[in-house]
Design brief:
about 290 residues, MetI-like fold, 13 helices
């Protein structure tokens, strides 16, 4: 016997409750789906502070410490004085010539390192016997500082442009080469076996599987090499050069033009940031499949 036959009014109450319960539950998601009330500019400002807050605090401390006198302003000039020296050098054209010459030296060396390092790394990563034969001597050269070999390069190539470009090439070659080898060796073997199962030949496997999977690792080496090229550029231009940003740093230090010296250092840092940003942009366009939010 059911409750409807015992008490008709009680049955009507249960029926009404069943009809009202889904209606109440259907209103619950609307409470959770309210739009975010935080303004967009606040979210953007919070992201900027979270990422660059420490850098901005450091620059503000530098400016205040140098202006108030907590540090010697002759050794650490205020940032506004450094920026003024940078602007004067750019507006006068002196630093523009140095930028052009430095970019030419580092660009030639970087392009040569890419042209040699990537094909050789792909070949060594694919052919195990070649890697075993060349790896010991490559490790020996990699552990030898390029700055320690710079006098040797000067003896062999002279004090002109060739030795400067070659020492930068030598230092930038190994990050690209080793990253390329590592990228090829880390390709999932199951992907290669699957491609061969579907009838792909060696060339097709390399072009369709190995090369695309190695691109992220190759770009890691490219970014490291771009930074290394700018670092070695300073050392190369400090010896036997009369133009370039590295020469400008040493020349300003010798003449006690401290704001100009810091301006040249700041210029090098900005060039490094621009080079890294360009490589990251190219990597994102070529490797959209490897991005977590793609």
């Amino acid at each position: 016997m059911s409750y409807e036959t015992i008490n008709p009014s009680l049955a009507a109450g249960f029926a009404t409750a069943r009809r009202e319960t889904p209606a109440k539950n259907s209103t619950q998601p609307a409470v959770h789906s309210r739009p975010n009330s935080v303004p967009r500019w606040r979210r953007l400002l919070g992201a900027i502070v979270a990422r660059y807050g420490l850098v901005l605090a450091f620059l503000a401390f530098w400016q205040v410490a140098s202006t108030v006198g907590w540090v010697n302003a002759a050794v650490f000039p205020p940032l506004d004085v450094i920026l003024s020296a940078l602007w004067d050098g750019l507006a006068g054209g002196a630093l523009l010539d140095d930028i052009a010459i430095s970019l030419q030296r580092s660009g030639i060396a970087f392009a040569a390192a890419v042209a040699v390092g990537i094909p050789l790394g792909l070949f060594m990563g694919q052919v195990r016997l070649v890697e075993q034969a060349l790896d010991p001597i490559l490790q020996l050269f990699r552990q030898t500082s390029a700055l320690a070999l710079y006098p040797v390069f000067i003896l062999l190539l002279g004090l002109g442009e060739t030795s400067k470009v070659f020492v930068i090439f030598w230092a930038t070659l190994f990050p690209i080469l080793l990253s390329t080898i590592g990228g090829v060796k880390e390709v999932d073997r199951k992907l290669i076996e699957m491609a061969r199962t579907y009838g792909a030949g060696s060339l097709a496997v390399f072009r369709r599987v190995v090369l695309p999977a190695s691109v992220p690792a190759i770009f890691v080496g490219l970014r490291l090499s771009a930074t290394t090229a700018l670092l070695l550029l300073i050392a190369a231009e400090m010896i036997g050069a009369n133009k370039g940003i590295g020469f400008q740093v040493m020349n300003a230090q010798y003449n006690f033009q401290i704001p100009l010296m810091f301006a040249s250092i700041l210029l090098l840092a900005l060039l490094g940031l621009v080079a890294n940003a360009l490589l990251v942009l190219v990597q994102r366009n070529l490797c959209r499949w490897s991005q977590p939010n793609a």
